[in-house]
Design brief:
The structure is a single chain. 16% of the residues lie in helices and 33% in strands. By secondary structure, the chain is α+β, with helices and mostly antiparallel strands. The protein has 4 helices and 6 strands. Strand 5 and strand 6 form a beta hairpin. It has a single domain, classed as Thiol Ester Dehydrase, Chain A, CATH 3.10.129.10. Strands 1, 2, 3, 4, 5 and 6 form a 6-stranded antiparallel sheet that branches. The chain is globular and about 65 Å long.
Length: 163
């Protein structure tokens, strides 16, 4: 027997109330859950990227080149800062239009077995007429507290609709 709950609304089943461009502030930080990059992460990235260089999947090759383990591809680290991996798209729920730009600088090697700590922080808010651009500094640290990647992302977001 089916029971329809008139008090339940799937549209209200969200993690947080939606924010708009005007609700955001410079310095606001969005931490993305940490993760330890293991063999499965490396294999999945190699398969998805098509990058077949052995520095990313052959431990003995890496050791022969002076690395302690497989070396993560730079893009494998950059994707750790994907806004969807954290709360930001949920915070922007109704206002998010999309990611419009991304850049990264890879500062130190990341190896299989390292734990990464990604984060995004609003560094600038550029208003437009009906939308705005949120500029985010992206960062990834490792378990040794070393900054291994820094970058910037820009997201296009709607301004609050008139009431």
């Amino acid at each position: 027997m089916r029971h329809i709950d008139p008090n339940f609304d799937p549209a209200q089943h969200t993690l947080t109330d939606s924010s708009y461009f005007e609700d955001m502030r410079v310095g606001q930080r969005f931490v993305i859950p940490s993760r330890t990059l293991g063999d499965a992460n490396f294999a999945a990235f190699q398969l998805a990227s098509g990058d077949n260089h052995p520095i990313h999947y052959d431990v003995e090759y890496c050791r022969g080149k002076g690395h302690p383990h497989m070396l993560a591809h730079g893009f494998q680290i950059a994707i750790q800062t994907a806004p969807g991996a954290g709360m930001l798209p949920h915070v922007l729920e109704e206002s998010l239009i999309g990611l419009i730009e991304q850049s990264s600088k890879f500062l130190m090697p990341v190896y299989c077995g390292d734990t990464v700590y990604p984060a995004l922080e609003i560094s600038e808010l550029i208003p437009g007429k009906t939308t705005g651009v949120i500029v985010l500094n992206s960062s990834v640290h490792n378990q040794h507290r070393e900054l291994v990647m820094s970058g910037e992302q820009r997201m296009l977001v709607r301004k609050r609709p008139p009431t």
